[in-house]
Design a protein that fits this description.
20 helices; 14 strands; six-stranded mixed sheet; Rossmann fold; about 575 residues; four-stranded mixed sheet; single chain; alpha/beta; 2 domains
């Protein structure tokens, strides 16, 4: 009778917990859906978080041998790639996180027109079909994230796990069965033996689990991924028919990994919609060692079928990353599908940088190369980054933040935001010449190249800078390359006027209501070369002592008139 009452109490507690959990989960889901609807079409600048860096790079590092071109670290940094990625990312699972990062750094110009059109039509469908988009996001949110490390980092460590014979777990359960038998003889004895054996199991569990905890995390996520795979296939989304067919095929490859095991694998409070039952699951695991048992049961199977899991991860990642791309397209009034031309051309109409607040749109067309001049803070560097970012988005996810964007499929290189390296002892100038050399090498290959340079060789003196920059920029012209270079050296616009088209940004000096002068920029690109300089004027406007800027102005005028520096010590 006591046993029946005890079992009844346990069952009642479980039912009550399930009911409370169901109501709580429904409330969470409703709030989550409202947030999804409210945030769709919103792109906010989110700075790079170094603590999350390793969590989304695992898939990218695993696939560095894939066909195509990977944007290198210098170009990625010049484009503020980490900030771009974080700002565009709307993923709720590690699949979406990791695949989007990989996608934004991987240019595959060998992809067929049919595949490209399919990707574009799928992102458009996610914009139009809100119900399907939200259902997919709910599935991915339930899948959640792995935490500070990529799931592939965990998988790579699986080969280090020491195997434990499964018979040891059967012994543990057999002892429980024998103890239960003692309840029919002496309830008090049975309770005492149960408590003692539970303590023994908890000690075994805690001791053993500590050594495999990081591996259990990977299995937990693998199983959750497979559950998500099955649920998405069950949705039967028309525009993902081929993807679902492939998911079904790959899932069969992993049939030995049972999704029912997830209930016994530790639930972790990571990103996503969590479960109140996780506490009770943890208790069962502690006493029965279930999650560790299923861990060893699946270990060999997963190691042998790693490629199948990678394929499932890829497909799910592509699906969720397309939600982020759909969000980008919906966020701006003027986005377009880029046009990829067979000829050497770079053209944009009303192009903006997606992460620059209230960005001024610019239009241009170039088939030769662009040499851009203009005063300080007039917009040269932002323009270069705008073109670079839109070229990256165009070639990776087929979106440009412009009314029209035309380019020849190309590999992308830049040298814009270099720094001295104290660790290596490398000066700025050395960093520059090494950075530019990789672009010179790229030009020798058969690939088409678009490169971006900001202030070529700024790390050396004026005379040698102008001489070397002239020859470097002349070298970076030809049939397979378009170079966009910003410079303060007006001399280059004359020396290279046969090789480059000249463009410039201008400023205006205006007085405010108090008759105080200030400088204003239109941030609009213009044809031609800049005829103004503002460095000395800025000193005056910002309140520097008069003797500094007036004397500097005299020195500057003397040099411009005579070609020589003449300093009057009086």
């Amino acid at each position: 009778m006591d046993v029946i009452l005890l079992l009844g109490f346990i069952v009642g507690a479980l039912v009550l917990a399930a009911i409370v959990n169901a109501f709580s989960t429904q409330k969470k889901i409703k709030r989550f859906i409202l947030r999804l609807k409210k945030n769709f079409g919103v792109v906010e600048r989110k700075e790079y978080d170094p603590e999350k860096y390793s969590s989304y790079r695992g898939y990218f590092l695993r696939h560095l041998d894939d066909d195509g071109f990977f944007i290198d670290e210098i170009t990625w940094n010049d484009a503020e790639g980490e900030t771009l990625y974080n700002s565009l990312n709307k993923s709720y699972s590690s699949c979406g996180d990791e695949y989007l990062y990989y996608r934004l750094r991987h240019i595959d110009n060998s992809i067929s027109e049919e595949e490209r059109e399919r990707f574009i039509s799928q992102t458009d469908a996610l914009i139009e079909d809100e119900a399907t988009r939200i259902k997919l996001q709910l599935k991915f949110a339930t899948l959640g994230k792995t935490g500070k490390h990529s799931v592939f980092e965990y998988i790579n460590l699986l080969s280090n796990v020491k195997k434990v014979p499964l018979i040891l777990f059967y012994v543990v359960w057999a002892v429980y069965a024998l103890i239960i038998g003692t309840y029919f003889i002496n309830v008090t004895l049975g309770v005492c033996l149960t408590l003692i054996w539970m303590v023994v199991c908890v000690i075994i569990y805690l001791t053993h689990k500590k050594s495999v905890e990081e591996y259990i995390t990977s299995f937990e996520y693998i199983v959750r991924t497979l559950i998500t795979c099955e649920k998405i296939v069950g949705m039967k989304v028309p525009f993902y028919d081929k993807e679902c067919e492939e998911l079904t095929k790959q899932r069969k490859e992993l049939k030995g990994v049972k999704t029912s095991y997830l209930s016994f694998i530790k639930q972790s409070n990571r990103s996503g919609i969590t479960d109140m039952m996780s506490g009770m699951t943890a208790i069962l695991n502690s006493f029965l060692l279930l999650d560790i048992f299923f861990f060893y049961k699946m270990l060999k199977y997963v190691c042998d079928k790693e490629d199948a899991y990678d394929n499932i991860f890829t497909i799910l990642g592509k699906m969720e990353s397309q939600v982020s791309i759909a969000n980008l397209k919906y966020a701006y009034e003027d986005t377009c599908v880029p046009t990829f031309a067979d000829e050497k051309i770079l053209k944009a109409e009303d192009m903006i940088h997606p992460l620059v607040f209230d960005c001024v749109a610019n239009s241009f067309e170039n088939k030769k190369g662009m040499l851009i001049t203009g005063s300080n803070a007039s917009g040269k560097s932002t323009f270069l980054r705008s073109v670079l970012v839109n070229a990256i988005l165009s070639e990776t996810v087929y979106v440009a933040c412009a009314k029209e964007f035309i380019m020849q499929p190309s590999v992308l290189f830049s040298s814009m935001s270099l720094k001295d390296s104290l660790a290596s002892g490398e000066s700025y100038y050395m960093a520059e010449i090494n950075s530019i050399k990789r672009i010179l090498e790229a030009k020798k290959n058969d690939d088409n190249v678009i490169c971006f340079l900001d202030e070529v060789l700024r790390g050396t003196n004026t005379v040698e800078r102008v001489a070397a920059a002239t020859e470097i920029l002349r070298y970076l012209t030809g049939e397979n390359i378009i170079t966009l270079a910003a410079t303060h050296d007006i001399e280059l616009t004359y020396l290279l006027e046969k090789d480059y088209d000249n463009y410039f940004f201008r400023e205006e000096i205006k007085k405010d209501e108090n008759e105080k002068e200030d400088i204003y920029f239109s941030y609009k690109i213009n044809n031609g070369r800049s005829e103004t300089r503002n460095a000395l004027l800025l000193l005056k406007i910002k309140g520097y002592p008069e003797e500094i800027y007036s004397s500097a102005e005299g020195l500057s005028k003397g040099f411009m008139d005579t070609g020589k520096w003449q300093y009057d010590e009086s």
